């Protein structure tokens, strides 16, 4: 059974959490934030952030020696940091971002909008109520495990009762054929 950890609840929740925690006075999506704030919000280390910029996961703008990040950059970095903390490799994260961007071409920044789960091995994305692997594009079924287990137990019990106590119609039909 694939047990999923919820990494990224909802972009709505995350945006509200970030706005209320750090950006209340600004309240604009066009604002730029310095590295110090980005490190506190995302939980990434300075070395991780430098590396992610170097390999192109985010593209902050520079003003002299300082980097500044957009609100979307911060959301993306927080998701990447959470996925890394849950054991997903940076290679799989990058592959997942590339694949999702390829499949959803109108979405230039899927990590800032989509709901993403991980089991530490793969990125599972929810888009319009459907779940799929971001790296393989394989779809996943969604169903209630508790209800499924209850149905299995119910059907097993009904089968056991039928075996012990066959219905009279079945018994008379088999004796009539003898």
Fold and architecture overview:
- By secondary structure, the chain is α+β, with helices and mostly antiparallel strands.
- It has two domains: about 5-140, Multidrug-efflux Transporter Regulator, Chain: A, Domain 2 (Orthogonal Bundle), CATH 1.10.1660; about 145-175.
- The chain has helices spanning about 10-20, 35-40, 45-55, 70-85, 90-105, 145-165, 170-175; strands spanning about 5-10, 30-35, 60-65, 65-70, 115-120, 125, 130-135, 140.
- It has a five-stranded antiparallel β-sheet with strand order 1-5-6-7-8, with helices on one face. Strands 2-4-3 form a three-stranded antiparallel β-sheet.
- Strand 5 (about 115-120) and strand 6 (about 125) form a beta hairpin.
- It is elongated.
Please outline the major beta sheet. 5 strands, antiparallel
Number of helices: 7
Q: Determine and state the CATH class of the largest domain.
A: Mainly Alpha
Domains counted in the coordinates: how many?
Answer: 2
The count of strands amounts to: 8
Q: What is the approximate shape?
A: elongated
Question: What do we call the CATH topology of the largest domain?
Answer: Multidrug-efflux Transporter Regulator, Chain: A, Domain 2
Q: What is the beta-strand fraction?
A: 15-25%
Question: Distance N terminus to C terminus?
Answer: 48 Å
* Mean pLDDT figure: 73
- Indicate the low-confidence ranges by residue numbers: 1-13, 23-27, 172-178
Strand order of the largest sheet: 1-5-6-7-8
The class by helix and strand makeup works out as alpha+beta
Residues in helix, %: 40-55%
- Quickly give the CATH architecture of the largest domain: Orthogonal Bundle
Radius of gyration equals: 25 Å
């Amino acid at each position: 059974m694939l047990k999923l950890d919820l990494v990224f609840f909802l972009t709505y929740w995350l945006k509200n959490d970030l706005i209320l925690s750090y950006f209340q006075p600004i309240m604009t999506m066009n604002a730029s934030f310095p590295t110090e704030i980005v490190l506190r919000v995302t939980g990434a280390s300075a070395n991780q952030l430098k590396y992610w910029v170097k390999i192109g996961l985010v593209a902050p703008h520079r003003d002299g020696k300082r980097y500044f990040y957009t609100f979307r950059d911060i959301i993306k970095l927080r998701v990447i940091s959470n996925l890394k903390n849950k054991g997903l490799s940076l290679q799989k994260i990058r592959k997942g971002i590339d694949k999702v961007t390829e499949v959803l071409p109108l979405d230039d920044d899927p990590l800032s909008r989509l709901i993403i789960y991980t089991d530490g091995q793969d990125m599972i994305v929810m888009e319009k109520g459907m779940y799929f692997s971001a790296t393989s594009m394989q779809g996943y079924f969604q169903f209630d495990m508790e209800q499924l287990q209850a149905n299995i137990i119910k059907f097993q019990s009904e089968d056991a009762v039928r075996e012990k106590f066959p219905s009279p119609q079945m018994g008379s039909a088999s004796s009539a054929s003898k």
